[in-house]
Amino acid sequence: MAAYLHKECKLRLFCTDIPPTSIIITFHNEARSTLLRTIRSILNRTPMHLIQEIILVDDFSNDPDDCKLLINLPKVKCLRNTERQGLVRSRIRGASIAQGYTLTFLDSHCEVNKDWLQPLLHRVNEDSTRVVCPVIDIIHLDTFNYIESASELRGGFDWSLHFQWEQLTPKQKAQRLDITDPIRTPIISGGLFVIQKSWFNHLGKYDTEMDIWGGENFEISFRVWMCGGSLEIIPCSRVGHVFRKKHPYVFPDGNANTYIKNTKRTAEVWMDEYKQYYYAAQPFALDRPFGNIESRVKLRKNLHCESFKWYLEKVYPELRIPKDASIQKGKIRQRQKCLETKKETNHEIPKLTLSPCIKPKGEDASAQQWTMTGSRIEHVASHLCLDMDMFGEGAEVDREIVVNPCESSLMSQHWDIVSS
Ligand code: UD2
Ligand code: MN
Q1: What spacing in Å lies between the alpha carbon of 189 and ligand 2's midpoint?
Q2: DSSP state, residue 253
Q3: Which atom of ligand 1 is nearest to 241's Cα?
Q4: DSSP 3-state assignment of 328?
Q5: SS3 of residue 117 by DSSP
Q6: Is 6 helix (H, G, I), strand (E, B) or coil?
Q7: pLDDT at 14
Q8: Which residues form a coiled coil (predicted)?
Q9: How many A from CA of 87 to the centre of ligand 1?
């Protein structure tokens, strides 16, 4: 592991006379080796007086010993959920027993770098409304090597509420006088951050109705900015993280349903009239259940938070507002027959067929429901888009209308309505 710190960080003085922090790590079926690497790196690379405790929350992993055996290490405490709660409720549980002045959240597959903690605690100690993140380096998925990532990045997103890393614009770069200066970020990636404990509680912790994984980073980011705080990435603090290609755990209600539920709650509570752009990008969300949001709406009111318009203007003016957010819903008909999808065994992607538009009682009508937003036609039930596959070459090309995973950059998924 190389240090990768800007040499300028050595010249910056970070206060070390800071109250200790509670480190909170939740996990569900994490490999023991990566969990141990996370904790060992913390114990090796952090001044002990800055750690109040390391609270592990075992989110009902298959083997209870994963957590239990680790309490033999210094500072480590272990809580185990009696049923799967998801990362939001697990983090809140960890925070509820924390005794430190600040809370430091980490994922369970990290390696903290040298001097990672002081720069974070220093910033929060100066101003308790700041919520701060390290630069996230990459732990290679196959080799587990520690790889430096670009440090002039910030968090951004599109209207479908998917997180993405963004390069700073030349203007934003020019505004930074020193490469060690904090980078203000519209959104945090979600896993690794420090927040002052009473500020976390005052702001309403997290939305406890969010399940398993996903979306909570949008909710906490909008809330922090709109209710009087700020989000920063601190270039002098670096932590490695294993970015995985797919989730190594199951979602009891399905991956897409859970993500939609969590992001829909965020859009409904925080995005005001701008939620229409979320629904245009994610029409699948329109009919999905999302539970009761009353207490979160009330929280927003009690905290006297700014509007989403304010957030877009002041925090994320780079997010372009789409010209067309109209959504059309309905069937695609040819005479008496309607376009629908049919799932075949052994095939992940369903096939397209035409079948009678009027369905016998008891048969699922949602197979014929489509939405059109902009130039994309999406199948409501499967969340797939109307597309064209091509086979062969030159004059021999065969074309077939199919459904495929939606991708707005694909021209083969662009359609127009032409009135005849
Ligand atoms: C990112 C965040 C992650 C979280 C997520 C959005 C980083 C580095 N990671 O995805 O923290 O904000 O976006 O939700 O920014 N876990 C549980 N119970 C569960 C599921 C997960 O405890 O039911 C744990 C899991 O073991 C891990 C943490 O929650 O320690 C985050 O999950 P992840 O690593 O799968 O999320 P990631 O890094 O893809
Ligand atoms: Mn992770």
Answers
A1: 10
A2: T
A3: 8
A4: strand
A5: helix
A6: coil
A7: 77
A8: none
A9: 7
Give the model confidence (pLDDT) of 364-406 as tens digits: 778 898 998 888 899 888 889 999 988 887 778 888 899 998 8
Length of the chain: 420
Angle at 297 between CA 294 and CA 301, to 5 degrees: 135
Q: Which of 62-71, 82-91, 316-325 has the lowest average pLDDT?
A: 316-325
User: Which residues are CB-contacts of 4 (< 8 A; sequence separation ≥ 6)?
Assistant: 113, 137, 148, 238
Tell me, using a 6 A CB cutoff, whether residue 61 lines ligand 1: no
* Confidence grade of residue 7 (pLDDT, cut at 50, 70, 90): confident
pLDDT confidence tier of residue 26, bands split at 50, 70 and 90: very high
Report which of 213, 207, 206, 282 is spatially closest to residue 244, judged by C-alpha positions.
213
Q: Give the pLDDT confidence of 201-239 residue by residue, as tens digits.
A: 999 999 999 999 999 999 999 999 999 999 999 999 999
Residue of 24, 20, 18, 59 whose CA lies nearest to 38: 24
Strand partners, 146: 139
Ligand 1 proximity of 258 Cβ (cutoff 6 Å): no
Helix or strand or coil: residue 147? strand
Per-residue 3-state assignment (H helix, E strand, C coil) for 129-190: CEEEEEEEEEECCCCCCEECCCCCEEEEECCCCCEEEEECCHHHHHHCCCCCCCEECCCCCC
Atom number in ligand 1 closest to CA 217: 12
pTM more than 0.85: yes
* pLDDT of the residue at 284: 86
Inter-residue contact 77 to 52 (CB < 8 Å): no
Ligand 1 centre distance from Cα of residue 415 (Å): 36
Contact 308, 272 (CB under 8 A): yes
Task: Write the secondary structure of 313-326 as one string of H (helix), E (strand) and C (coil).
Answer: HHCCCCCCCCCCCC
d(CA 372, CA 366): 15
What are the b/e assignments for 100-136, b being 16+ CB within 10 Å?
A: bbbbbbbbbbbbbbbbbbbbbbbbbbeebebbbbbbb
Q: Is the CB of 28 under 6 A from ligand 1?
A: yes
Q: Is 58's C-beta closer than 6 angstroms to any atom of ligand 1? A: no
To which residue do tokens 């960890």 refer?
94
Average pLDDT along the chain: 93
Report all structural domains of the chain as residue ranges with CATH numbers, in order of start: 7-242 (3.90.550.10), 328-413 (no CATH)
